[in-house]
TrEMBL record:
SUPFAM superfamilies, sorted: Actin-like ATPase domain
Domain of life: Bacteria
Species whose genome carries this gene: Streptomyces halstedii
Coiled coil region boundaries: none
Pfam family, one: ROK
Family (UniProt): Belongs to the ROK (NagC/XylR) family.
Protein name in the entry: ROK family protein
Record InterPro entries: ATPase_NBD, ROK, ROK_cs
């Protein structure tokens, strides 16, 4: 009988996934729905409700002691609300309260998706065994999370480690967040592709203009495609070096779809890091690809919940402030 399970939700702009997770990180029961991202708030909550209905109907649900949510951000764990950029119907949506109402008083822990990925990589992935780590999700945006002193560092609202919005180019392009020259504006997949196209790169006969297509062109020797990845790597290196200088991390783990470019991104990233991470205490910083793949959000949400809720449960508490 599984008595120490954690339920997990991974909420993004394309999918809402759920699972029941055991203490080894194995996903015992899974559920998934597409996110009706362009519909109203209740339609999106309906999809969450469908996923929860599958999980709560499992005989294993009786062993669940907490539920973790990793959501696209911004999130506010102190208020229990989410406002995912790519789900316009949810602005300040009281997700923790709504999920708690469905699940009958199981403690609910909310973190941002970058923090969830970090929790997964620290528990079972590339950051395992490291007490101080930065994990990055380089995808449609650039997110991240921190492990400090062996513990997941969520911050009061669950957004700590959001490296995508460190400015690394003081007079750079305006970022949709309102600042200028953010890491995300230089290093996200869409921005890698945009920059390559603006500088004269042209897609092949299939018309694919994604960052993955730019990576393939770079691998084949296209200088414009290569330069776009090198610029992204430079921005990431500057952000990683700034973080390492502030809080002394031992490893930076790179995940997300753009990390699928492999050495097209990681080789110039390691080179650039030598330029920016120059002080003695950051020179030994390791860079490694993420290992957890597409299940990182679920495993990480489970890890965050398990860490926040003592093994005996939370004495009926509905909500746990993820701090």
């Amino acid at each position: 009988m599984h008595t120490h399970l954690v339920a997990a939700l991974d909420i993004g702009g394309t999918k809402i996934a759920g699972a029941l997770v055991d203490r080894d990180g194995s996903l015992l029961v899974r559920a998934r729905r597409s996110t009706p991202a362009q519909e109203d708030a209740e339609s999106v909550m309906g999809a969450v409700g469908d996923v929860l209905a599958e999980l709560t109907s499992s005989p294993l649900w009786a062993g669940v002691r907490a539920l973790g949510i990793g959501s696209a951000g911004p999130v506010d764990a102190s208020a229990g609300t989410v406002s995912p950029v790519n789900v316009p119907g949810w602005r300040g949506f009281p997700l923790v309260e709504r999920v708690g109402a469905v699940t009958g008083g199981v403690p609910v822990v909310l973190v941002g998706d970058g923090v969830a990925m970090t929790a997964a990589e620290h528990w079972l992935g590339a950051a395992r065994g490291y007490d101080n780590a930065l994990c990055l999700v380089v995808s449609t945006g650039v997110g991240g999370g921190l492990v400090l002193g062996g513990k997941l560092h969520r911050g009061p609202t669950g957004n700590a480690g959001h490296i995508g919005h460190i400015s690394v180019d003081l007079d750079g392009d305006p970022c949709p967040c309102g600042a200028r020259g953010c890491v995300e504006r230089l290093a996200s997949g869409p921005n890698i592709a945009r920059r390559a196209l603006e500088n004269g790169w042209r897609p092949g006969p299939d018309g694919d203009t994604t960052a993955a297509a730019v990576a393939a062109a770079a691998r084949a020797g296209d200088p414009v495609a290569t330069a776009s990845y090198e610029r992204a790597a430079q921005a990431l290196a500057a952000g990683i070096a700034a973080t390492a200088t502030l809080v002394e991390i031992d490893i930076a783990v790179i995940g997300g779809g753009v990390a699928g470019a492999g050495d097209i991104l990681l080789a110039p990233l390691r080179r650039s890091l030598r330029t920016y991470a120059t002080l003695s205490f950051v020179q030994r910083l390791t860079v490694a690809p993420a290992l957890m793949g597409t299940d990182a959000g679920l495993v990480g949400a489970a890890a965050a919940a398990a860490a926040a809720v003592p093994a005996g449960g939370a004495n009926g508490a509905r909500t746990v402030a993820a701090q």
